[in-house]
Amino acid sequence: MSETLLTAAFLYAQITLGFAGCLAALRVLRGPRAQDRVLGLDTLYVIAMLLFLVTGMRTGSLFFFEAAIVIGALGFVTTVSMAKFLLRGEVIE
Q1: Per the structure, how many domains does the chain have?
Q2: What is the CATH number of the domain that holds 49?
Q3: Around Cβ 68, how many Cβ atoms within 10 Å?
Q4: Which residue of 4, 9, 40, 45 has the lowest C-beta tally within 10 Å?
Q5: Please, which residues have CB within 8 angstroms of residue 11's CB and are 6 or more apart in sequence?
């Protein structure tokens, strides 16, 4: 009983995160300002990281957890560099 419930919860989480990813991608594509697009990309990488974590828990593979760490690190660096570029107009001083 609990294994079936856990499988259903993982499936529900993946579907919900997929829908949230579509909405974040829509914000990236239709964002009226550059700040909205950066926020959409930030949300998109967090959702991708969560999808990898849920998939890793569902399959039991450590590969997905390592990939989630890489996505989180690269997403953070990308968000910081884009925010710095929008604020100052240059990334490297």
Answers
A1: 1
A2: 1.10.287
A3: 19
A4: 4
A5: none
